[in-house]
Amino acid sequence: MQLIAENAKPLTGPEAAEVAAGDALFKGNCAQCHAVNEQVVGPALGGLTNRRPMSWILPWVKNSSKVVASGDEYAVAVFNKFNKQQIPSFALSDKEITSIVAYINSQEGTSMAIAAAH
Ligand code: HEC
Predict the structure, then answer these.
(1) Is-above-0.85 flag for pTM?
(2) Domain boundaries defined on the chain
């Protein structure tokens, strides 16, 4: 299994393990609707940590409708933009979601964003 995309910076140690875990979780839960660098059913997730802080991403992935219902401006806008299509709620832990974000960042090759995801 190739863990790291050709254009990504090589990772070592715990970061590599986290990205590998995130890779598997992303493929199992998110890839049917998302890609990192292109829009599929949902938006391209590349650059996510530049747009949203982890404190937004965690509750969103766990229960996006709750974030929309709270009146969060960004959430309402992205929800409306995608024709009010619901993203499923995921019973993932903070650690699992963080590893998915680390995977997304690794696919863009931004190692700075990986540090920000911790
Ligand atoms: C059934 C399709 C589907 C699945 C599966 C899915 N999403 Fe989504 N996602 C969407 C749609 C559609 C949107 C656009 C917002 C909305 O409609 O609520 C979205 C929006 C998002 C956003 C906001 C993106 C942005 O640029 O603001 C994030 C973050 C996100 N999804 C992460 C994930 C993660 C992580 C997973 C896997 C754990 C996942 N999604 C699984 C359909 C999906």
Answers:
(1) yes
(2) 65-102
